[in-house]
Predict the structure.
Amino acid sequence: MSFVTADLCDRFSGQENFQIAEPLFRHFGGNRRFCGRISTLKVFEDNSLVRTALEEKGYDRVLVVDGGGSRRCALFGDTLAGLAVENGWRGIIIYGCIRGVELIDQMPIGVMALNTHPLRSSKHGEGHRDVMITFAGVNFKQDHYLYADADGIIVSETKLD
């Protein structure tokens, strides 16, 4: 991966369907730069669908999870990060919290989340998959492309690199 989000902004920011996320997220994981086609989840304090998605082959995809911005529990942790690495996911964006960050930071995956929280989420199997989700001023849609690095997150309808 040789992209830099600042360079992508310089080249493509005037184009339609090019979005830049508000700077809300912290970086975790061993890969601070990642990109891929988007898969989406909309959940609230329940990570059952997160596990279900990560059990599937990622095929160089990025899982974007709208957790409603909740800071009352973690939707993702080191066990799920290991599953994501094993199945070829490139990165995870969590609009919520994660846990187990010391172990996640040693894994070859990119993770961005609002913050950390030690409490695990509930597991009721509730939520929606592959729907458009909106947070940080961006509409995340299935099969659009996400680029993330130390400068931020970019989403484009088309592949940019």
The two ends are 9 Å apart (CA to CA).
